Amino acid sequence: MTVLILTCEQDVTADMVVAELDGSGVPVVRLDPADLPGPVALSGEYVHGAFRGHLSAGGRMVSMSGLRSVWVRRPGVPATRAAEPSDWLSEETSQALYGMLRSTDARWMNHPDAARRARHKPWQLRLAQRSRLPVPATLITTFPQAARDFADRFPDLVVKPVSGAHPQEPPRAVPTSRVAPDADFSAVAYGPTLLQRRVAKRADIRMTCVGDRIHAARKAVGPDADPDEVDVRFATSDTTWLPVEPPPRVAAGVRTYLREAGLAYGAFDFAEDGDGTWWFLECNQSGQFGFVQIESGQPVARSVADWLAAPGPDPVPSNGGRAWLLEGH
Amino acid sequence: MTVLILTCEQDVTADMVVAELDGSGVPVVRLDPADLPGPVALSGEYVHGAFRGHLSAGGRMVSMSGLRSVWVRRPGVPATRAAEPSDWLSEETSQALYGMLRSTDARWMNHPDAARRARHKPWQLRLAQRSRLPVPATLITTFPQAARDFADRFPDLVVKPVSGAHPQEPPRAVPTSRVAPDADFSAVAYGPTLLQRRVAKRADIRMTCVGDRIHAARKAVGPDADPDEVDVRFATSDTTWLPVEPPPRVAAGVRTYLREAGLAYGAFDFAEDGDGTWWFLECNQSGQFGFVQIESGQPVARSVADWLAAPGPDPVPSNGGRAWLLEGH
């Protein structure tokens, strides 16, 4: 049984996992959907009630029924390296590739549907609440008056994008910023705005979760940190990520979250306050883990490889099958 | 409890359903996400482990916890009618709106995840097979030799797009066409191609399914029909859609399909051959029903209104919760 990795050519994180899989003798096919059609080819036949599909990449042919798992790492847009690329060809190719892969029995890290749903910040916040994780008071609104009322109740606020990275080429991360005490909220009417009570943090927490395995790491806020620098991605720091034992309630909450979200992989960000409470900020279903592994020494790539190589049924219904407990009933 | 309809302003099909709901005294809020922010506004607050959300449209305010169901009819792209539209604003607005709606207990027709998955033709064909519906022999390939071999085994073929409508503005439907006996398949290498055994049909079948209700209609092929005109959407015809009783096995298969796909609504196209067999061609999760209702007299709009207004839990886990039986296990 083969592990299929969908990612671009330059992907050091994928390299780390491939090295682990190679070391264990697990067959791997790695390809970039941007190379289909061309260096990558596919074929699927539906005859007499049965389906037989094949993928070809790098001179190797693999049967779709022989796929153990699919790791959706950083795949390119299908057909973008074709001889004559077009939106139409990308759509046709995407439907062919993912439509066939969706029909296989392979396990997904992460399933495209679960991944897409998991990107919705408002949904994340609600699922974290239902998973009994502490969530800082948050408002998402286009009503200026609602923003003003919220700022009266929670005077120390940060503002963040609702959706994450700005969709330019290359995507640009928008930093979380503090809201000035005399902020004018009238512009809220022109775009949904996410306001959140600022957590006066003494550490950032990154929990990298792979199936049932949790790798929690902690990075203390430096003693001379600027309290206006609330976004760890943009802060300079002398401190490093160190392994930490998560509180049992947080570990249980994170497992509930992943199960209900149908995710096999999730990178959680928490802020630890002065009382030691871990406040949920977000769960990135495609979050990087290379930097944590290098600094903390935690074997995340090993965990990913083990999950991808494991036989048997999916421990988490990887397309989010459980989430109907939360939605749509 | 309120029914929320997401659609554009000019939508006669939605008008038909709204008339039914109004006649039953069911509260309805109809809005176009393109009008958010602006005429449509939203707000959601996450405080002390609870969520409270509101939508405002046409001067009416509705609580998200008061939504019974959401009908995703023909919604515009969020924020496209904003004062300063941009991809970034559309993404922020989409995440805010759908992220909140996904967190509610409302039932969906259809859930966005189930709808997205259901558009994949290769996945449709496999699910139809597993639902024991007859599927004409089909090949989807980028291997010219595979296409040649298939044409040897099944000499009478049609070719169709894998993905449906061509993504130009406005989208253009690509007709299904017969493959000439001496076809050169070398171009298959430049784009995935769907080849299917042609069904010599004596009628087209449209089954419009709403929850458990099936409205099956049949349109006979005219006696002087051109056998090269295989695509009913482009054929001229004197015959009309008439109600027909589906064979019990087909009705059972269609119900299995919808359940496993997590769809509350689906419009199935079949081709009836000379033996009376109904061959599955496709299931369009957003297929029109106005023309069938008008010609056949079947009360599809009434069924849609009844489903949207029905209290209680979702008869189908409407985000596709059951589909992990087929995928990813």
Automatic annotation (TrEMBL), chains A, B:
Domain MvdD-like pre-ATP grasp: 2-113
Assigned GO CC terms: cytoplasm
Name of the molecule in the record: ATP-grasp ribosomal peptide maturase
One term of GO molecular function: ribosomal S6-glutamic acid ligase activity
Entry-linked Pfam families: ATPgraspMvdD
GO biological process, one term: SOS response
